[in-house]
Design brief:
The complex is a heterodimer of chains A (about 70) and B (about 150). With about 70 residues, chain A is mainly alpha-helical. Helices cover about 65% and strands about 5% of the residues of chain A. Chain A is built from 6 helices and 2 strands, in the order E-H-H-H-H-H-E-H. Chain A has helices spanning about 5-10, 15-25, 25-35, 40-50, 55-60, 65-69; strands spanning about 1-5, 60. The N and C termini of chain A lie close together (about 10 Å). The model of chain A has no long low-confidence stretch (mean pLDDT about 90). By secondary structure, chain B is an all-alpha fold. Helices cover about 65% and strands about 0% of the residues of chain B. Chain B has 5 helices and no strands. Chain B has helices at about 5-30, 35-55, 60-65, 70-100, 110-130. The chains are: A mainly alpha (about 70), B mainly alpha (about 150). The interface between A and B is small, with 11 and 9 residues.
Chain lengths: ~70, ~150
Amino acid sequence: MRNRVREQRTQRGLSQAELAAALGVSRQTVISIESGRYLPSLPLAFTIARLFALTVDKMFDPDDEEAGA
Amino acid sequence: MMTFIPPRLRKPAGVALAGAVFAAAWLVRGGPLWWVSIMAVIATAVRAVSWYRMGGEDTDEGALAASRADERQHLVSLQSRALACNLAAVAAFIGLTVAIAVKAGWWWPFLVILAITGFGFLLGLSSYGSGEPDTDDDADAGQPERSPVQR
């Protein structure tokens, strides 16, 4: 599943550590989410989407994996 | 129970407590090997300090050691413990099989480990999964039957 976390974070000039602090998670978790290795829980996905003023489906694209397969 | 202990001290405190109990067991046992309790105390102190120091690192292991893990780190920890339990169960099964084959008298500890892992799994299912109250599907819960086709 592709997500736009890295894109949104860099657009706002945030470091991974700053985003992690804003989300209340570790920097390693932000790295894992950005690389797609970890799918966040629904509450965390909503928190991420709200932080960037996007909807969850705009932030996380479930169709991308099927398109790429 | 441990909320009054600062998060970073919880794991080291657990290690220290377990080590103290282990050392006390050697002391109570007495005999010529009483000095093992001193070695156990030293090893425990080293291990507790190591855990505390690890808790200051900006890594997954550090977060777990300092009891400040987030949801992914909790998941990693859970998966690791599940793997450890699976390995213990497999090792216990192999040990039990070998002990039976060679007619050894030390088969029962393997059986105890197998029983504990099996019981733990069932307890986990009961606590986290199938413990949900079973209710009727909304479609069957006293709703008047209605054709899905709107007329």
